[in-house]
Design goal:
By secondary structure, the chain is mostly helical. About 50% of the residues lie in helices and about 10% in strands. The protein is built from 2 helices and 2 strands; from the N terminus they run ααββ. The chain has a two-stranded antiparallel ribbon.
């Protein structure tokens, strides 16, 4: 399964907002690790982002 960009952006934003790291590349790596773990366990990731117009990803 491929995680839609809007869903990946929400997870990346959560990593960034939690101040886990201030390096954007490390935030990307942490977000990808979370995404892969959820997908591996069979989760479907859904997100809605209103920036730049409505974007919904499932």
């Amino acid at each position: 399964m491929t995680t839609p960009p809007a869903a990946a952006a929400v997870i990346h934003g959560a990593v960034w907002d939690a101040r886990i790291t201030r390096d954007p590349r490390d935030a990307d790596k942490a977000a990808q690790a979370v995404i892969h773990a959820l997908e591996r366990d069979g989760w479907t990731i859904t997100a809605t982002r209103p920036e730049n117009g409505p974007q919904t990803a499932t």
